[in-house]
Write a structure and sequence with these properties.
heterodimer, A: Alpha-Beta Plaits, 2 domains, five-stranded antiparallel beta sheet, four-stranded antiparallel beta sheet, 4 helices, elongated, B: alpha/beta, Rossmann fold, 3 domains, 22 strands
Chain lengths: ~170, ~575
């Protein structure tokens, strides 16, 4: 994925953190990012095996110095259990994208479905004028999928944001 | 047998678990239930201030002077928002205060009800942690956790917002002593178990301690910087021993005042924007700078790139997020200052002697030399402070407001012990001093308390003179009255071409008469002999319990010297 102009010389980092699952933790987290001057690219949250603990995956552009400072700031939040930065080579990153595109004739319907198959996406809704697909992958895959569908005319698009997990030890 | 009591009683019992015997506060609608219970608990001393802001500073001053956790109560809405300057002041200076507010009933929350405000939202960036209590079952453990967090690790303020119906609901209550936190429900035990940074001091990396011992051994030109962490950690003795064994000059930050004795021979004075020549020149030339419990604020480092440019910089701090935040360090040790210094002293290879380095450093002035006013129409800061230092007891606790008077007081007084100087260093809160002095005098009734202020700062919160009078607190307020916002005027003079925009305070009231209106002693003085007489009288009359306001007229153009401009290089004095 092409980095924005302002992200030149910066690296994309994946931070995972677990917090007590209680009211207000998301605002504590989000507030810390904004008051320390970081912009969240994606954030995804859900509880873990323990329903009292919410796990967040957050991606931001930063440099090594600032990401270290951010992590030590995050660790001070009382509801935080742990904070880790995932190594790209040792982790799996996925997001789900839902996209509805114009498909008013047979040829475009066929082509869209074929593209969907190549990306292991699935058609989840079809109308005389449009097709809605879902696709799962890292941000490069969903971005490529989006690029290919642009020529048909994207009506609406939604992403979950990346969730990430460490690979098992070999 | 059920031993149910209501939320207000639980709150008071929990405060007693924590050893609280003094609270500062102001009642109101949402917190009525709590004050109703307080009526039955005369063993808890409640100090009613004139304004919630005064209460917030008083609780902060009490905490700083006694080392205990300060407690401050306020009602919902404006009561709560009036605390915020005090909360931020405590936060920036790492002072342990538990603020307790009550909010509207649970069924009124979110409806823009009368005196409703989301105070946890407001105070999120200025508290170590804050809580909403919407179930009485959670109240006791929340209070226990709040106190533990406020006082442990790097101390700081915590706010608990209790919904009004919680204070009236009944619940089982079992007392739990602070050391039996395992009996509390969950989170506090988890924080303890995992050594969470909010609550514990991290394990110290011994390799780094060894490395520092080696660096000290190799250094020829060391400089120690004594920060507020030395005060908070109670590491004053260890720090003084280290300074002696290293034979190292010691620069002191505003927050570090008192941790290293002001009379001690290795003291170079304050460091930074209004730092002494000795401190700033030593910083510039040293080969090893060890900062203990300081956060390298912009008022200390000025231009971070040129700060201690010839030195290896070592940072000892309990808060990992302070490391490399403002200044890149060569070595850091994360841990409680007292523990780190104890380990370091054990591992130091030998005692050092740095005579030629000390000769160099102390060839520069460590104190500012101010002129006396030859004509004698007004007092000079030096005349005022010398008289005070001579006449008041040496162990007098000094609180300050913010501005020129603050810098003069810190430069001039020789603070001997941690907690002797109580000042708003980080947040720079004008109006802090009188509230703080009230808290200090309540916490330390046997000590003489001097509140040094300026006419601008004093005008902000002088309403607390009524609190001073009512509780018979013999605080001595000393106003450096130059009829201007002196520090801002100084900048306008030096940087803004003498365009004195909105800084001239040629207005009332007559502070001496104001003091008398509040029922305490008030005097205006224009010369040294009158000042000395008043100070002598103030010391003598302490037992009558009446405070003093001494309005000292000084010249409008007095300046704080030396001065290095903001962002410029530390040895580049704009004024010497």
């Amino acid at each position: 994925m092409q980095a924005k102009e302002s992200h030149k010389n910066l690296k994309r980092y994946t931070i995972v953190t677990a917090m007590d699952n209680e009211a207000g933790v998301l605002s504590q987290l989000a507030h810390l990012f904004s008051r320390k001057g970081y912009n969240i690219e994606t954030i995804a949250a859900g509880w873990t095996v323990d329903q009292n603990v919410t796990r967040f995956t957050i991606e931001i552009y930063s440099d090594e110095e600032r990401i270290k400072l951010l992590c030590s700031q995050l660790r001070k939040l009382v509801p935080i259990h742990y904070v880790e930065i995932l190594e790209p080579s040792k982790s799996i990153r996925r997001e789900l994208m839902l996209v509805r595109v114009h498909a008013a004739d047979r040829a475009s319907r066929n082509e869209i479905i074929q593209i969907g198959n190549i990306f292991r996406g699935s058609v989840i809704d079809i109308t005389p004028d449009s097709i809605t697909l879902s696709v799962t992958g890292d941000d490069q895959k969903t971005q490529a999928f989006e690029e290919l569908l642009k020529e048909f005319g994207i009506i609406e698009l939604a992403r979950t944001g990346i969730v990430a997990i460490e690979r098992g030890e070999m | 047998m059920s031993n149910k009591i209501n939320g207000s009683e639980i709150l008071i019992q929990c405060l007693k678990e924590q050893g609280v015997d003094t609270i500062f506060g102001y009642p109101g609608g949402a917190i009525l239930n709590v004050y109703d219970k307080l009526y039955d608990h005369k063993e808890i001393k409640h100090i009613l201030t004139a304004h919630e802001q005064g209460a917030s500073h008083a609780a902060d001053g009490y905490a700083r002077a006694t080392g205990k956790v300060g407690v401050c109560l306020a009602t919902s809405g404006p009561g709560a928002t009036n605390l915020t300057t005090g909360v931020a002041t405590a936060y920036m200076d790492s002072s342990p205060v538990v603020f307790i507010t009550c909010n509207v009933n649970r069924d009124l929350i979110g409806r823009d009800s009368f005196q409703e405000v989301d105070i946890t939202g407001v105070t999120l960036p200025i508290t170590k942690c804050n809580y909403i209590v919407s179930r009485v079952e959670n109240l006791a453990d929340t209070v226990r956790e709040a106190f533990a967090i406020a006082r442990s690790g790097r101390p700081g303020p915590v706010l608990i917002d209790i919904q009004k119906d919680v204070t009236a609901s009944d619940c089982e209550y079992e007392p739990v002593r602070p050391e039996d936190y395992e009996k509390t429900s969950g989170r506090l035990a988890r924080l303890r178990r995992t050594h969470h940074p909010s609550i514990g001091s991290p394990d110290i990396d011994m390799n780094d301690v060894e490395k520092l011992a080696e660096m000290i051994d190799e250094s020829q030109k060391p400089l120690l910087v004594c920060g507020g962490g030395v005060v908070r950690s109670g590491a004053s003795e260890e720090f003084r021993t280290l300074a002696n064994r290293m034979d190292s000059p010691v620069a002191i930050t505003v927050m570090g005042g008192g941790a290293y004795g002001g009379y001690m021979p290795l003291k170079t004075g304050m460091i930074g924007m209004h730092g002494s020549q000795a401190s700033n020149m030593a910083c510039d030339a040293c080969d090893l700078l060890i900062a203990v419990g300081c956060r390298f604020s912009d008022r200390v480092t000025l231009n971070p790139a040129g700060f201690a440019k010839n030195a290896k910089i070592v940072h000892i701090d309990i808060d990992a997020s302070e490391i490399d935040k403002n200044i890149k360090t060569d070595l850091h040790i994360i841990g409680d200052a007292k523990e780190v210094l104890t380990l370091l002293l054990e591992r130091m290879k030998r005692d050092k002697h740095n005579d030629s380095w000390k000769d160099y450093v102390f060839s520069f002035k460590r104190e500012t030399e101010y002129d006396n006013d030859p004509e004698g129409f007004t007092l000079t800061p030096k005349e005022v402070l010398s008289s005070v230092a001579e006449i008041l007891p040496q162990d007098t606790i000094v609180t300050t407001d913010v501005g020129q008077h603050q810098m003069w007081a810190i430069q001039h007084f020789k603070f001997d012990y941690p907690g002797q100087l109580i000042t708003s260093g980080g947040f720079g809160t004008m109006g802090f001093g009188l509230g703080a002095a009230i808290g200090v005098q309540v916490g330390c009734p046997e000590k003489t308390v001097l509140h040094v202020t300026g006419d601008g700062s004093f005008r902000m919160n002088c309403n607390e003179l009524s609190t001073e009078e009512y509780y018979k607190l013999p605080i001595i307020t000393l106003i450096f009255n130059n009829s201007t916002l002196g520090m801002v005027r100084q900048w306008q003079h030096l940087i803004y071409n003498e365009r004195y925009s909105q800084t001239t305070l040629d207005r009332g009231p007559d502070f001496a008469k104001l003091a008398e209106a509040y029922g305490i002693h008030g005097r205006s003085v224009h010369d040294v002999s009158a000042l000395r007489d008043v100070l002598t009288e103030a010391v003598k009359s302490r037992s009558d319990g009446l405070g003093w306001v001494i309005d000292c007229k000084i010249d409008i153009d007095e300046m704080v010297r030396p001065m290095v401009g903001g962002g410029s290089y530390i040895a580049n004095f704009m004024l010497d």
